[in-house]
Write a structure and sequence with these properties.
single chain, alpha+beta, 5-stranded mixed sheet, 3-stranded antiparallel sheet, 14 helices
Amino acid sequence: MLHSLWFLPSLMVVLFVLLAVLTIRLEGLMPQSGRNQLITFPGGVEGARSLLSAIASSLFGVAGTVFTITITALSIASGQMGPRLMESFTRDWRNSVSLGMFLGTVSYTFTILRSVPIGQSQPESVPHLGVHLALLFTFISIIVLIYFIHHVATSINVGYVIRSVHDDLHRTLTTQTVQGQRHDQQHLLPPEWTGQDIVSAPRSGYLQSVDTDALVHLAVSHGATVCLLVRPGDFVMKGIPVAWVTPRACKGITRTMTIGRSRTTNQDIEYAARKLVEVASRALSPGTNDPYTAMTVLDHLGDALVSLQERGLINGQFEHEGQVRLIMPQPGFSGMVETMFNMIRQYGRTHPAVMIRMLEVLTRAAAVLVDPDRRSVLQTHADLVYTEALEHTEAQHDRDALQRRYQRFVDVCHDRRKLTDPARPLPVQIHE
């Protein structure tokens, strides 16, 4: 709810209305001597009403314009970079605050306008403090409007979008990996239990997150062990089994699971990567034909891989006092790399520049990743890239460039095996 487009504007409208009421009450409680010390509004009652009416009507129109610009930006982003990227726009607090500032100022002005009496000309009838605050909020709204136009123009830039989605991927990797481990934890197969109970999904939707701490605490309090059959990002259907529990089921397991209408990047590494891959795939479509955007996406995917040099993927086994209480499926390194590169390789096989950049990204990742199992996965994808690129590349100059990049990858993997200090990154000369 905090990331929705309506929450902050609605909250700001309520706060501005309360501020207007408080201003009216405060000015009404002030003695006449105190009011005289305020900077009085020189226009009189009719001038105050005219000014407040002009502010309210003009800013109301500006708020409509701001909303229109926001919807237009969302439409452009959805059409060019994929509908799943709309989440990044709708949860941008700067858009919400901008809209809330205009609507809040309008609401404040209408509330103050209501306190200005009709048919009176006494100066003491003018809410001087309220009028001056309305003017202050108007000037602030003008500044916000200038910033908002700049922000929208920047936020629909594909480079900005890629960086924003990359930050989501990096945050997800940070929360779903263990610092200080250069190797991934071994994945465990679900045990063959006897006498276990089955827990079914209460409703249909995507599993967005699992509160593992609460689930482990629940299992400990009931002396049970829970084995989840689904992981964040999976679509569950109402009534299908989502967990095994031994020796008996305990109430409250499904309450630790957040099931929603769409996938999120909270605990879903692959979805965070897919959002970047979608940008690259659309850029490589015949109607767009923008290989440079795909190469930019590959750079950011490579940065995500390199960030794992000091982090290891967890195996989904959670213990309490040495006893396993929860087993949850987790994405592996192989599946994550497939998500990052398979679709881009399939769409970009006819673009030598894209395939060359993919080999360079894989080479840089292989130069810093210590785990030989991880490098074996990268080797598999480098072989696929090289083979498919040669099949779809006719120019000998481009084929030679592909061969050099692939040979450099092979040399890096070979040199890493000969390092006396396997934890030391291997310098790689990318430019020719």
